[in-house]
Specification:
Number of helices: 6
InterPro entries: ALK/LTK-like_GRD
Subcellular location: Cell membrane
Helix content: under 10%
Radius of gyration: 30 Å
Number of domains: 3
EC number: 2.7.10.1
Membrane topology: Single-pass type I membrane protein
Oligomer: single chain
Strand order of the largest sheet: 27-26-29-24-33-32-31
Largest sheet: 7 strands, antiparallel
Distance between the termini: 27 Å
Number of strands: 33
Strand content: 25-35%
Protein name: receptor protein-tyrosine kinase
Amino acid sequence: MALKTLIFNYTGGVQSFTAPLNGRYSLEAYGASGGNSARSTSQRGGKGGYASGDIKLLAGQTIYIYVGGQGGDTNAADSTSDAGGYNGGGSLLSGQSLYGAPGGGATDFRTSSGAWDTLTGLQSRVLVAGGGGGANSRDDGYGYGSGGDGGGLVGTDGTTAGQNSGGMSYGYGYGTGGTQTSAGSYRWYQNGILKSDSINGGFGVGGANTQSGGGGGWYGGAGSGHGGAGGGSSYYGSLLNPTAIAGVNNGNGKAIITYEDYEMFYLLKKDGAYYIPQKAFFDIHNKKFNSVTIEYILNNYTITKPDDLNKPFVMNGKTLYPSDILDFSKCQICAFTQASLDDRELKMIYEPSNISLAKTTIKVKDKFTSLTSNLDHTFIDITSPDKNKLDYFIDYNRDDQDNLRKSCGILNKEILKYDFFLNFKFDATDAKLQTIKLFGRNDKYTKIKDYSIDVYDDFIDKAYIVFHKDYDAVFVNKLSSESAAYTINTLDKF
C-alpha cells in the first residue's frame, strides 16, 4: 500500500479523474487570487481560499476538476471589459482596467462535466475553494481598497479607504464576501450613510463591477464600484473530515487528490476452496496444490498479475504448469486488493473480456421480496450499448409457458413473478451488460425511482446485487466453469 497524490494545475478547462478502486479519496482545492492593480502596491487582490474533504468513490466513477484562474493584474489602457479568472471570477466593467482588477476563479470538484458555468455543473459541485476579490487603486475621490480573501464558508469582505477616513468626495464602498446561501452585496456609502446595498454576483460566479470584480465560489463575492471586491465562499457539502480556510493561496488555483493505491492480487477458487498455484503450495507427494485459508491470504499476497496464475515452476528438475495440475476450466479467478482484505471482506473487481462474455451465461437467482407493500409486481429493465447483442431467459422453475427466452433488444417491461432465475446470454464478442434496473407498478402504473446498484461478494460461494431501498438483495450464482483460455480477467460486470 502506498499513498498516491495527483496534482491538477490551472489549464483553463475541465480535467477529470476516474477512481481505480472502491474507496475513500481525499480532495483538496485552492482558489485563485484576485487581480492586483499595478498603480499601487498597497491595494492587492484577495488570496484564494482552501477547502478539503474525503469522498467515497466506486471503481470507475469519474469526478471533474475545475481549477480557478487568477484575476488579471491591470495597468493597461481602458477597455470595455476585463474578464475575471476562469471558473467564476467577476469581470471588471466600463473600461476601468486603469484602476481596478477582476476577481479570481474558484477551484472545485464536481460530478457533472461541461462548460464551467452550466447550472447542472454548478449544482453538482461537491467541494469548492473560493477565489479572491479584485483590488481597486482609484484614489481620485472614488474610494480604493484591497480585495477580500476567498473563504472559508464565508468569503472575506473587500476593504475601502473611506471606512476609516470619513468618506470620499464621490462616496466609498466595497463588496462583501459570498456566503453559503447568497452572493455578496455591493455596499456604497456617502457621507457615512449607507446609500445602496445590492446583491452583486451569483451562484458560482463573482460579481462584475466598474472598479473591481468579485471572487468566484460556491456563491461569488460582490464586485465594487468604490473599493475592493469580496471573496467567494468555499463549500464542502457532505464530505467527510471537511475543512475550509480563508486566504491561503496566491496565483492560480490548484486541486489535489490523494488516495491509497492498492495493488491487485489474484488467486483461484474451486469447489469453495482457494488456491495460489505456485511452487510453495504444491504437494509433491499427492501431485496437487494445497488450498489456503482467508487468514493465510491476509498475510501472503503473491500473485499480482492474472497471467502469473499459470506461471511455470521447476520441481525436481521438471517444469510444471499450474493448469496441468489444477483444472482451470473448473476454477474461478478471484481478484482483490489489500484494502478488501484489511476489511475482511473481499470485493470482486469485475473486468470482463469480450471473448469470454460472448461464451458466458450469467445467472441470477432470487427469492424476490418487494419492500414496498403497494407494489403488486416488479418490472425488470436492462441497459446495454446494444440490447440486440444480449438475450435473457427468466426461469421460474415451473412447468408452464412463463419460461421463455427473449431478446433484450425488444425488452420493454418484464413482470417478475414467484421465485426466479435470470440468465443472460452474450451473443456477440462486443456485447456489454451495463445495468439491471427494477421498477414497481402501483395502481397508476407509474415507475418508482430507480436506485443505484451495489455488487458485492462474500468470497465463499455467493455474490449479491443490492437494489437500494426498494428491494431485498439478489443472489448471484457466480461463474464456475470456463475453459482455460478464457479464465483470465473474465468476471461478470454489472
